Amino acid sequence: MRKALRSQMLSITFAVLFLGALVGQSFAGLAVYNENQVAHRSSPAGYWDFVISSNFVVDVAENWQSEYLQFFLFILATIWLVQRGSPESKKPGDEGVGSDESQLVGRFAKPDSPKWAKVGGWRLKLYSNSLLLVMGTVFLASWWLQSVAGTVVYNAEQLDHGQPPVEWIQYVFSADFWDRTLQNWQSEFLAVGSMVALSIYLRQRGSAESKPVGTPHAETSTEGD
Question: What pTM was computed for the model?
Answer without folding.
Answer: 0.88
